[in-house]
Amino acid sequence: MVKDVTCEYRSEALGIGAERPQFSWRIESDRRGTQQSAYRLRVAGSDGDFGSPLWDTGRVDSEQSIQLSYDGPKLASRTRYYYQAMAWNQSGDPSDWSETSWFETGLLGSDEWTARWITPDPREIDPQSEASYLLRKGFALDKEIASARIYATAAGVYELFVNGEPVSEDLLAPGWTSYSSRLQYQTYEVTGLLRQGSNAIGIHLGDGWYRSGLGFEGKNFRYGEHRAALVQLHVAYQDGTEAVISTDDSWKAQIGPVLYSTIYHGETYDARRELTGWAGPDFDEDEWKPVEALDLKTDVLAAQENWPTRVTETIRPVASFVTPAGDHVLDLGQNMVGRMRFTVTAPAGTSIVLSHAEVLGQDGNIYFGNLRSARQQVSYTAKGEGAESYAPHFSFMGFRYVKVEGFPGAENGLPLDAFAGEVMHSDMEPTGTFECSDERVNRLQANIKWGQRGNFLDVPTDCPQRDERLGWTGDAQVFISTALFNYQGAPFFTKWLRDLKAEQHADGGVPFVIPDVIGGANSAAWSDAAVICPWTVYQYYGDRRLLAEQFESMKAWVEFIRAQGEQEYLWTTGFHFGDWLALDAKENSYIGATPRELVATAYYAYSARIVRDAAQVLGRTEDARRYGELHRHVVQAFRDEFMSPNGRMTAPTQTAHVLALMFDLAGEQVRGRVARDLNELIAENGCHLTTGFVGTPYLCFALSQNGYHDTAVKLLLQTSYPGWLYSVSKGATTIWEHWDSIKDDGSFWSDDMNSFNHYSYGAVGDWMYRKVAGLDMDAAVPAFKRIRIEPMFGMNKLTHARTSHLSMYGRIESGWGIENGKQIEVTVRIPANCTAEVILRGAAIADLKEGGQLVGTVEGIRSAVDTPTGAKLEIGSGTYRFAYENGEIFRNRYNADSKLEELLADEAAAGVLQRHIPQALTGPAIHFVKKLSVQQVFENPMSAMTEEQFNAILSDLAAIG
């Protein structure tokens, strides 16, 4: 069955700007091993007649079911098209046609905009006024209406009304883009809001990102001095004619009840200034002021690309209390991003002030210090006409606690049912889950997702509360894989990457933040987002179009690096953030001890490799050869400069070792040495990390992939500072910017940079999903077409873990559990039209069962072989439940309290083991011995031990050898 057929990631895509949109679908089947062998896709015109389709692929023999580009006649603007898909399985059996879906084009050419940009006449209303504008137009429709669409945008942010009703649930439209180069417009279906006769359009226009002032204190950046709106309504009549109502100088303007509203500081609202019915057709506009047309550009307009910002959840306060300072405070129970809505009955002129904060101070008072200059404050003046409900229109806050002043009756306690937190972010579909036996880790996963929601409000911001909230490239690139696992982020990053490309400098340099409002550029690991992010989007969604679109930008960034300094294959010049906020930094420094030129050259190699791989995907043979050669040279230069021939890193930091391992800079002959040294650095630090923004996202991967998964799990479960569960132990409900944002004594890290909602360190989620739960992709086949399942279990610290991801092909699941320390069960779900490699550590084919049967007789299992690691299976689609005994091999490898490890820790045992390890012992046995006790086995002096101890060791070695 063909299901979930989408165009541009949406089943009903209104107002798209793609001239060759891409289609995808999923296949559902009860039969294991189902593969698509052929497909047929057809697109009908606005009449929906599939008997005479606009485009019909006919039967195409192919497994392709995602990102199929339209290749029919040129699409017309403002037109709805319908589409269906069907498929054949590997046996040649056809499916039925899918349900019919549709997409509708927007205005595909800038010359189709007849509307004018309008703003209040400056002779009547001060253009520098902080108050929001109300703009309206009354008009008549004299025929029976067939359909109607509005195309709208703003220099600022806007709310749009037709006949007094909001046209959508979208907030803060048109979003934040690189306005001088790209400005999104939105398309709204408004047929049901119009009527024959008198009608009206209303626009509520605020500053938003356009005029709020952005950047750091004292350096506020504004895109323009005038808020303005651009609206074009097209009404199709039943008789085939059309009416167009556009913004022009016939519109009227007035000041609205929002007296002040900015991104950082909040909103001031005077309900006494509300104008009832102002967006309706019968409103008396005689007192309203004229508008003027502005000469702003329309050639920068782009159809909406990102998911719209909306309220996605409502949270009620869990408590109210009075602080030692006497403040009345609400506790939402969750650090969230959005706005507070409240309902109040109060005399006219009553002033209610809400001040938002993330945490309480050591003294129990609400803490605003980390907001810096951002006020995050909402002021409301009641009109005194019964129950009044209000939430800010053009601002958002990052908060858990709300100080409430002036609310009637607060002396008897704030009424919890009068308040609600409305969670706001880009309305992405959730696609990922993770759950395990440790509730603290489950809280960490929740914190990761809340951090993403809070910071994915139209752009991937670093923090949502203080006077920053910027699209930092470094944060985005380290977190993007975790982000795309948890939420459908293709439109989100497509829009942001187009802004990155637009902001890229002529010499290929890339700003620190996108959109760029601070001016800095070209730091390694930050600007590498130009390469890493489009490649990661391709890996998750198979979107070759976006990869091709960004490819010149990717190349330009690598060529920028190549041009720096006098050494072509090293990057040793310029400013770099380095391993930002690493704990091995010098006193009073934010930059870690790992040399910045090492970090820069490592990322130089990584980006060159990705550009090579992207060129191969795009069929750009010469580019693939050129960047493959560049990559080899940079890797060799890195080794010559930062590593000894025997694999000792010149910089004895955790991050230096992590980068050498993760970016394949350490050759196979020395990887073991680098991994061992990394493990020892962590052990010497009491099994704690010292890594910052650069090293932390890869740390656990570097350990797990090189024989030290036990150390990685211990790091995950570390509750003392620094560690992921330290913040959980302190009650965190999002990811912190600093490992010790709140210290053990309850005091805070410095006010100058201490966000309690900063998603970067949440990148550990990627490792949790891929290694702990074991759900990974084959990097050579994008979008999880070929899946890799290899749970690494949990060193007896975890008894189960499971994860799922809704991929382009369907839902994938990987989960495992251990019963009584003996029976291992692994559950796998593979969607149709996909295959998977499954590696079950410690399993043997002879004893492995699926659904109660030995695997050799099970449908859907294409092959099964034993390997030194365990059983390796090739399987087709379907749900599988594998079971096997947790034998001696598993216990020795994964139980930190096992007999063997205890013996190896004994000096006498170590000495005898050193004498008796056969020189020919290789593979898993020697790897295991090295992993468990490198120093004890290979460095301690020989000594005697009991025969019983020695025989036990030999028995254990025989079991794994």
Automatic annotation (TrEMBL):
EC number: 3.2.1.40
Record keyword Aminoacyl-tRNA synthetase present: no
Domain Bacterial alpha-L-rhamnosidase N-terminal as annotated: residue spans: 143-313
Entry keyword annotation includes Hydrolase: yes
Domain Alpha-L-rhamnosidase six-hairpin glycosidase: 431-772
Single GO BP term: carbohydrate metabolic process
Domain annotation Alpha-L-rhamnosidase concanavalin-like: ranges: 324-421
Source taxon at top rank: Bacteria
Keywords: Hydrolase
Reaction(s) this enzyme catalyzes, per UniProt: Hydrolysis of terminal non-reducing alpha-L-rhamnose residues in alpha-L-rhamnosides
GO molecular function: alpha-L-rhamnosidase activity
UniProt xrefs under InterPro entries: 6-hairpin_glycosidase_sf, 6hp_glycosidase-like_sf, Alpha_rhamnosid, Bac_rhamnosid6H, Bac_rhamnosid_C, Bac_rhamnosid_N, Ig-like_fold, Rhamnosid_concanavalin
Domain Alpha-L-rhamnosidase C-terminal span(s) in chain numbering: 780-847
Membrane-spanning residues: none
PANTHER family according to UniProt: ALPHA-RHAMNOSIDASE (EUROFUNG), ALPHA-RHAMNOSIDASE (EUROFUNG)-RELATED
Protein's recorded name: alpha-L-rhamnosidase
